[in-house]
Specification:
Blueprint: E1 11-12, H1 23-36, E2 40-41, H2 42-45, H3 56-61, E3 83-85, E4 88-92, E5 95-101, H4 115-118, H5 128-137, E6 143-148, H6 156-167, E7 174-179, H7 181-184, H8 187-190, H9 193-204, E8 208-214, H10 223-234, E9 238-244, H11 253-266, E10 269-274, H12 289-300, E11 311-316, E12 319-326, E13 330-338, E14 347-351
Parallel strand pairs: 5-6, 6-7, 7-8, 8-9, 9-10, 10-11
Antiparallel strand pairs: 1-2, 3-4, 4-5, 11-12, 12-13, 13-14
Length: 376
Protein backbone atom coordinates (compact mmCIF):
# COMPACT_ATOMS: atom_id res chain seq x y z
CA UNK A 1 0.00 0.00 0.00
CA UNK A 2 1.30 3.46 -0.92
CA UNK A 3 1.34 5.56 2.26
CA UNK A 4 2.53 8.78 0.61
CA UNK A 5 -0.29 11.29 0.96
CA UNK A 6 -0.69 14.69 -0.64
CA UNK A 7 -2.67 17.27 1.33
CA UNK A 8 -3.26 19.31 -1.80
CA UNK A 9 -6.20 17.99 -3.76
CA UNK A 10 -5.12 16.08 -6.83
CA UNK A 11 -7.83 14.51 -8.93
CA UNK A 12 -7.18 11.54 -11.19
CA UNK A 13 -9.74 11.40 -14.00
CA UNK A 14 -7.96 9.19 -16.51
CA UNK A 15 -7.18 5.51 -16.16
CA UNK A 16 -3.98 6.15 -18.10
CA UNK A 17 -2.66 7.91 -14.99
CA UNK A 18 -2.97 4.75 -12.90
CA UNK A 19 0.44 3.16 -13.15
CA UNK A 20 -0.69 0.23 -11.03
CA UNK A 21 -2.95 -1.00 -13.87
CA UNK A 22 -1.49 -2.97 -16.74
CA UNK A 23 -1.96 -1.70 -20.28
CA UNK A 24 -4.42 -4.52 -20.95
CA UNK A 25 -6.42 -3.68 -17.83
CA UNK A 26 -6.65 -0.03 -18.85
CA UNK A 27 -7.81 -0.94 -22.34
CA UNK A 28 -10.53 -3.21 -20.95
CA UNK A 29 -11.76 -0.54 -18.57
CA UNK A 30 -11.80 2.42 -20.94
CA UNK A 31 -15.32 1.56 -22.16
CA UNK A 32 -16.54 1.51 -18.59
CA UNK A 33 -15.07 4.91 -17.79
CA UNK A 34 -16.51 6.29 -21.01
CA UNK A 35 -19.97 5.15 -19.96
CA UNK A 36 -19.91 6.03 -16.26
CA UNK A 37 -16.88 8.23 -15.74
CA UNK A 38 -13.89 7.83 -13.46
CA UNK A 39 -12.68 10.22 -10.77
CA UNK A 40 -10.61 9.78 -7.62
CA UNK A 41 -8.31 11.71 -5.34
CA UNK A 42 -4.68 10.73 -5.05
CA UNK A 43 -5.29 10.35 -1.31
CA UNK A 44 -8.03 7.76 -1.75
CA UNK A 45 -6.03 5.83 -4.33
CA UNK A 46 -3.20 5.65 -1.78
CA UNK A 47 -5.46 3.51 0.43
CA UNK A 48 -5.57 0.69 -2.14
CA UNK A 49 -3.55 -2.45 -1.63
CA UNK A 50 -2.73 -3.05 -5.29
CA UNK A 51 -1.24 -6.45 -4.52
CA UNK A 52 -4.69 -7.72 -3.50
CA UNK A 53 -6.90 -8.23 -6.55
CA UNK A 54 -9.96 -8.28 -4.26
CA UNK A 55 -9.02 -5.15 -2.33
CA UNK A 56 -12.32 -3.51 -1.25
CA UNK A 57 -11.05 0.06 -1.69
CA UNK A 58 -10.04 -0.80 -5.24
CA UNK A 59 -13.51 -2.22 -5.92
CA UNK A 60 -15.10 0.95 -4.58
CA UNK A 61 -13.28 3.32 -6.93
CA UNK A 62 -11.71 1.44 -9.89
CA UNK A 63 -14.06 0.48 -12.77
CA UNK A 64 -14.89 -3.12 -13.60
CA UNK A 65 -16.12 -4.46 -16.92
CA UNK A 66 -19.02 -6.07 -15.06
CA UNK A 67 -20.60 -2.60 -14.84
CA UNK A 68 -21.45 -2.85 -18.53
CA UNK A 69 -23.94 -5.66 -17.89
CA UNK A 70 -27.42 -4.43 -18.83
CA UNK A 71 -29.32 -3.99 -15.59
CA UNK A 72 -31.22 -1.29 -13.80
CA UNK A 73 -32.32 2.23 -14.71
CA UNK A 74 -30.76 5.68 -14.59
CA UNK A 75 -33.31 6.90 -12.04
CA UNK A 76 -34.80 3.79 -10.39
CA UNK A 77 -36.25 5.78 -7.48
CA UNK A 78 -38.00 8.23 -9.84
CA UNK A 79 -36.44 11.23 -8.13
CA UNK A 80 -37.29 13.49 -11.06
CA UNK A 81 -40.98 12.99 -10.32
CA UNK A 82 -40.51 14.79 -6.98
CA UNK A 83 -38.52 17.67 -8.45
CA UNK A 84 -40.37 20.96 -7.88
CA UNK A 85 -37.61 23.17 -9.31
CA UNK A 86 -34.20 22.46 -10.87
CA UNK A 87 -32.14 20.82 -8.14
CA UNK A 88 -34.94 20.91 -5.56
CA UNK A 89 -36.85 17.77 -4.56
CA UNK A 90 -39.75 17.63 -2.11
CA UNK A 91 -40.67 13.99 -1.67
CA UNK A 92 -41.29 13.81 2.07
CA UNK A 93 -43.51 16.36 3.79
CA UNK A 94 -40.96 17.53 6.39
CA UNK A 95 -37.86 17.36 4.19
CA UNK A 96 -36.58 19.18 1.12
CA UNK A 97 -33.55 18.01 -0.83
CA UNK A 98 -31.10 20.31 -2.60
CA UNK A 99 -28.90 18.76 -5.31
CA UNK A 100 -26.13 21.32 -4.96
CA UNK A 101 -23.02 19.17 -5.44
CA UNK A 102 -22.15 19.25 -9.16
CA UNK A 103 -19.51 16.54 -8.76
CA UNK A 104 -17.79 14.34 -6.16
CA UNK A 105 -14.27 13.89 -4.81
CA UNK A 106 -14.47 10.43 -6.35
CA UNK A 107 -17.00 8.47 -8.37
CA UNK A 108 -18.23 5.47 -6.40
CA UNK A 109 -18.66 2.63 -8.85
CA UNK A 110 -22.10 1.85 -7.36
CA UNK A 111 -23.27 5.50 -7.44
CA UNK A 112 -27.06 5.76 -7.12
CA UNK A 113 -27.15 9.07 -9.01
CA UNK A 114 -24.56 8.45 -11.71
CA UNK A 115 -27.04 9.94 -14.18
CA UNK A 116 -25.90 13.36 -12.93
CA UNK A 117 -22.42 12.69 -14.33
CA UNK A 118 -23.41 10.68 -17.42
CA UNK A 119 -25.50 13.26 -19.25
CA UNK A 120 -25.82 17.02 -19.53
CA UNK A 121 -27.90 16.99 -16.39
CA UNK A 122 -30.16 19.92 -15.54
CA UNK A 123 -30.89 18.58 -12.07
CA UNK A 124 -28.18 20.46 -10.17
CA UNK A 125 -29.29 23.50 -8.16
CA UNK A 126 -27.28 26.50 -9.36
CA UNK A 127 -29.70 29.34 -8.54
CA UNK A 128 -30.41 29.16 -4.82
CA UNK A 129 -33.01 31.94 -4.67
CA UNK A 130 -36.09 30.01 -5.96
CA UNK A 131 -35.25 27.09 -3.66
CA UNK A 132 -34.99 29.36 -0.62
CA UNK A 133 -38.31 30.99 -1.48
CA UNK A 134 -39.89 27.56 -1.80
CA UNK A 135 -38.70 26.56 1.68
CA UNK A 136 -39.98 29.83 3.13
CA UNK A 137 -43.42 29.25 1.64
CA UNK A 138 -43.68 25.63 2.85
CA UNK A 139 -43.67 25.82 6.61
CA UNK A 140 -44.12 22.07 6.96
CA UNK A 141 -40.48 21.66 5.91
CA UNK A 142 -38.40 21.17 9.04
CA UNK A 143 -35.10 20.12 7.50
CA UNK A 144 -33.16 20.45 4.28
CA UNK A 145 -30.75 17.83 2.94
CA UNK A 146 -27.83 19.16 0.91
CA UNK A 147 -26.53 16.48 -1.40
CA UNK A 148 -25.56 15.91 -5.01
CA UNK A 149 -22.82 14.97 -5.94
CA UNK A 150 -20.97 16.12 -2.85
CA UNK A 151 -21.77 19.57 -1.41
CA UNK A 152 -18.24 19.89 -0.01
CA UNK A 153 -16.83 20.04 -3.54
CA UNK A 154 -18.31 23.54 -3.69
CA UNK A 155 -16.15 26.46 -2.66
CA UNK A 156 -16.40 27.50 0.97
CA UNK A 157 -17.82 30.84 -0.17
CA UNK A 158 -20.70 29.20 -2.03
CA UNK A 159 -21.42 26.89 0.89
CA UNK A 160 -21.43 29.87 3.25
CA UNK A 161 -24.02 31.65 1.11
CA UNK A 162 -26.33 28.63 0.96
CA UNK A 163 -26.02 27.77 4.65
CA UNK A 164 -26.58 31.32 5.86
CA UNK A 165 -29.63 31.71 3.62
CA UNK A 166 -31.11 28.54 5.10
CA UNK A 167 -30.21 29.62 8.63
CA UNK A 168 -32.46 32.67 8.27
CA UNK A 169 -35.61 30.57 7.73
CA UNK A 170 -37.43 30.51 11.06
CA UNK A 171 -39.36 27.24 10.73
CA UNK A 172 -36.32 25.30 9.49
CA UNK A 173 -34.79 23.34 12.37
CA UNK A 174 -32.06 21.16 10.87
CA UNK A 175 -29.70 21.13 7.91
CA UNK A 176 -28.23 17.84 6.73
CA UNK A 177 -25.13 17.60 4.55
CA UNK A 178 -24.49 14.31 2.78
CA UNK A 179 -20.80 13.86 2.00
CA UNK A 180 -18.06 11.31 1.47
CA UNK A 181 -15.31 13.90 1.94
CA UNK A 182 -14.07 12.42 5.26
CA UNK A 183 -13.36 9.17 3.40
CA UNK A 184 -12.40 10.46 -0.05
CA UNK A 185 -10.49 13.58 0.97
CA UNK A 186 -10.50 14.45 4.71
CA UNK A 187 -8.16 17.42 4.15
CA UNK A 188 -11.12 19.31 2.64
CA UNK A 189 -12.27 19.58 6.24
CA UNK A 190 -9.12 19.53 8.33
CA UNK A 191 -7.39 22.23 6.27
CA UNK A 192 -10.32 24.65 6.02
CA UNK A 193 -10.81 26.58 9.26
CA UNK A 194 -13.20 28.97 7.52
CA UNK A 195 -15.58 26.13 6.76
CA UNK A 196 -15.44 24.92 10.36
CA UNK A 197 -16.09 28.46 11.63
CA UNK A 198 -19.15 28.73 9.37
CA UNK A 199 -20.55 25.46 10.68
CA UNK A 200 -19.86 26.53 14.25
CA UNK A 201 -21.64 29.87 13.73
CA UNK A 202 -24.77 28.28 12.30
CA UNK A 203 -24.92 25.63 15.02
CA UNK A 204 -24.68 28.34 17.67
CA UNK A 205 -27.56 30.16 16.02
CA UNK A 206 -29.77 27.18 16.73
CA UNK A 207 -29.94 25.58 13.28
CA UNK A 208 -28.36 22.22 13.95
CA UNK A 209 -26.18 20.85 11.15
CA UNK A 210 -26.10 17.07 10.77
CA UNK A 211 -23.24 15.68 8.68
CA UNK A 212 -24.14 12.34 7.09
CA UNK A 213 -20.71 10.96 6.20
CA UNK A 214 -20.58 7.88 3.99
CA UNK A 215 -18.11 5.19 4.99
CA UNK A 216 -18.45 1.94 3.05
CA UNK A 217 -15.60 -0.11 4.48
CA UNK A 218 -13.69 -0.12 7.80
CA UNK A 219 -10.41 0.76 6.08
CA UNK A 220 -11.80 4.15 5.14
CA UNK A 221 -11.78 5.07 8.84
CA UNK A 222 -8.19 6.02 9.66
CA UNK A 223 -6.32 8.77 11.47
CA UNK A 224 -7.02 11.30 8.71
CA UNK A 225 -10.77 10.66 8.53
CA UNK A 226 -11.00 10.56 12.33
CA UNK A 227 -9.37 13.97 12.52
CA UNK A 228 -11.92 15.35 10.05
CA UNK A 229 -14.80 13.89 12.06
CA UNK A 230 -13.38 15.30 15.30
CA UNK A 231 -13.13 18.79 13.85
CA UNK A 232 -16.74 18.62 12.63
CA UNK A 233 -17.87 17.50 16.09
CA UNK A 234 -15.99 20.42 17.69
CA UNK A 235 -17.85 22.76 15.33
CA UNK A 236 -21.11 21.55 16.85
CA UNK A 237 -22.21 19.19 14.07
CA UNK A 238 -24.08 15.96 14.77
CA UNK A 239 -22.18 13.18 13.02
CA UNK A 240 -23.96 10.28 11.31
CA UNK A 241 -22.85 7.64 8.86
CA UNK A 242 -24.63 5.56 6.24
CA UNK A 243 -23.60 3.07 3.63
CA UNK A 244 -25.05 0.73 0.99
CA UNK A 245 -24.68 -3.04 1.23
CA UNK A 246 -22.17 -3.90 -1.50
CA UNK A 247 -21.27 -7.29 -2.92
CA UNK A 248 -17.63 -8.17 -2.46
CA UNK A 249 -16.98 -5.06 -0.36
CA UNK A 250 -18.97 -5.15 2.87
CA UNK A 251 -21.52 -7.95 2.36
CA UNK A 252 -20.44 -10.08 5.29
CA UNK A 253 -21.32 -9.76 8.99
CA UNK A 254 -17.74 -9.33 10.21
CA UNK A 255 -16.97 -6.43 7.86
CA UNK A 256 -20.25 -4.65 8.63
CA UNK A 257 -19.99 -5.01 12.39
CA UNK A 258 -16.37 -3.81 12.28
CA UNK A 259 -17.45 -0.82 10.18
CA UNK A 260 -20.26 0.12 12.59
CA UNK A 261 -18.15 -0.35 15.72
CA UNK A 262 -15.28 1.70 14.28
CA UNK A 263 -17.78 4.36 13.21
CA UNK A 264 -19.17 4.74 16.72
CA UNK A 265 -15.66 4.87 18.17
CA UNK A 266 -14.83 7.64 15.70
CA UNK A 267 -17.87 9.66 16.78
CA UNK A 268 -20.30 8.63 14.04
CA UNK A 269 -23.77 7.21 14.68
CA UNK A 270 -24.76 4.54 12.11
CA UNK A 271 -27.89 5.83 10.35
CA UNK A 272 -28.95 3.72 7.37
CA UNK A 273 -27.76 0.56 5.65
CA UNK A 274 -29.13 0.88 2.11
CA UNK A 275 -30.13 -1.86 -0.25
CA UNK A 276 -28.06 -1.22 -3.39
CA UNK A 277 -30.28 0.84 -5.67
CA UNK A 278 -30.89 -0.86 -9.07
CA UNK A 279 -29.15 1.88 -10.99
CA UNK A 280 -27.68 1.15 -14.40
CA UNK A 281 -24.21 -0.36 -13.99
CA UNK A 282 -24.82 -1.56 -10.43
CA UNK A 283 -25.39 -5.28 -10.97
CA UNK A 284 -21.90 -6.34 -9.75
CA UNK A 285 -22.54 -4.65 -6.40
CA UNK A 286 -26.09 -5.82 -5.74
CA UNK A 287 -26.94 -8.32 -3.01
CA UNK A 288 -30.38 -10.02 -2.96
CA UNK A 289 -32.70 -8.45 -0.39
CA UNK A 290 -33.13 -11.59 1.69
CA UNK A 291 -29.40 -12.35 1.77
CA UNK A 292 -28.87 -8.76 2.81
CA UNK A 293 -31.32 -9.05 5.68
CA UNK A 294 -29.53 -12.14 7.01
CA UNK A 295 -26.15 -10.37 6.82
CA UNK A 296 -27.63 -7.30 8.51
CA UNK A 297 -29.04 -9.25 11.45
CA UNK A 298 -25.89 -11.34 11.89
CA UNK A 299 -23.72 -8.21 11.87
CA UNK A 300 -25.80 -6.64 14.65
CA UNK A 301 -25.03 -9.61 16.91
CA UNK A 302 -21.44 -8.37 17.20
CA UNK A 303 -22.43 -4.83 18.16
CA UNK A 304 -23.63 -2.99 21.22
CA UNK A 305 -26.76 -0.87 21.08
CA UNK A 306 -24.63 2.13 20.12
CA UNK A 307 -23.62 0.46 16.86
CA UNK A 308 -26.91 -1.07 15.79
CA UNK A 309 -29.35 1.81 15.82
CA UNK A 310 -29.36 1.94 12.04
CA UNK A 311 -32.14 0.55 9.82
CA UNK A 312 -31.86 -1.55 6.66
CA UNK A 313 -33.84 0.32 4.00
CA UNK A 314 -34.59 0.80 0.33
CA UNK A 315 -35.01 4.28 -1.17
CA UNK A 316 -38.00 3.27 -3.27
CA UNK A 317 -40.03 5.55 -5.52
CA UNK A 318 -42.89 5.51 -3.02
CA UNK A 319 -40.80 5.99 0.11
CA UNK A 320 -38.06 4.74 2.36
CA UNK A 321 -39.00 1.10 2.92
CA UNK A 322 -37.47 -0.72 5.87
CA UNK A 323 -36.70 -4.43 5.52
CA UNK A 324 -38.12 -5.09 8.97
CA UNK A 325 -38.29 -8.85 9.50
CA UNK A 326 -38.27 -12.24 7.83
CA UNK A 327 -39.75 -15.64 8.66
CA UNK A 328 -39.28 -18.99 6.99
CA UNK A 329 -41.91 -18.16 4.35
CA UNK A 330 -42.48 -14.40 4.51
CA UNK A 331 -40.66 -11.09 4.43
CA UNK A 332 -42.01 -8.01 6.18
CA UNK A 333 -41.56 -4.45 4.95
CA UNK A 334 -42.48 -1.22 6.72
CA UNK A 335 -42.68 2.34 5.44
CA UNK A 336 -40.10 4.21 7.49
CA UNK A 337 -40.90 7.30 5.41
CA UNK A 338 -43.32 7.77 2.52
CA UNK A 339 -44.18 10.22 -0.22
CA UNK A 340 -47.80 9.77 0.83
CA UNK A 341 -47.79 10.58 4.58
CA UNK A 342 -50.70 8.19 5.13
CA UNK A 343 -48.40 5.28 4.34
CA UNK A 344 -45.81 6.07 7.02
CA UNK A 345 -45.56 3.16 9.45
CA UNK A 346 -47.66 0.81 7.33
CA UNK A 347 -46.54 -2.81 7.06
CA UNK A 348 -46.55 -5.17 4.07
CA UNK A 349 -46.05 -8.92 4.17
CA UNK A 350 -44.90 -10.79 1.07
CA UNK A 351 -44.05 -14.34 0.19
CA UNK A 352 -40.28 -14.68 0.13
CA UNK A 353 -38.36 -14.41 -3.13
CA UNK A 354 -34.68 -15.29 -2.88
CA UNK A 355 -34.02 -13.69 -6.29
CA UNK A 356 -35.43 -10.28 -5.34
CA UNK A 357 -33.07 -7.30 -5.47
CA UNK A 358 -35.70 -4.56 -5.01
CA UNK A 359 -39.17 -3.99 -3.60
CA UNK A 360 -40.75 -4.25 -7.05
CA UNK A 361 -39.48 -7.85 -7.35
CA UNK A 362 -42.05 -8.87 -4.73
CA UNK A 363 -45.53 -9.42 -6.13
CA UNK A 364 -47.31 -11.93 -3.89
CA UNK A 365 -48.87 -10.05 -1.00
CA UNK A 366 -50.25 -12.29 1.74
CA UNK A 367 -52.31 -9.60 3.48
CA UNK A 368 -55.12 -7.41 2.20
CA UNK A 369 -53.15 -4.19 2.31
CA UNK A 370 -51.70 -2.90 -0.96
CA UNK A 371 -49.60 0.22 -1.55
CA UNK A 372 -50.40 1.95 -4.81
CA UNK A 373 -47.22 2.44 -6.80
CA UNK A 374 -47.86 5.05 -9.53
CA UNK A 375 -44.53 4.36 -11.21
CA UNK A 376 -44.96 0.71 -12.23
Amino acid sequence: MDTRISKKTKYITSLSKLGKLTEKERENLEKVSEAFGFRATDYYLSLINWEDENDPIKKLIIPTVKELEKWGAKDPSYEKSYTVAPGLQHKYRETALFLIGPTCFGYCRFCFRKRLFMDDSNEILFDIKPAIEYIKSHKEIQNVLLTGGDPLTLSTGKLKHILFELAEIEHLLNIRIGTKAPAFYPFRITKDEELLDILDTINKRGKRIHIVAQFDHPREINNHSRKAVNKLIKSGCVMLTQMPLLKGINDNPETLSTLWNKSVNAGLSPYYLFQCRPTVGNKPFAVPVEDGYKIFEQAKMNCSGLSKRLKYVMSHATGKIEIAAMTEKHIIFKYHQAANPENIGKTMIFKRNSNAFWFDDYTELVDEYKIENPFV
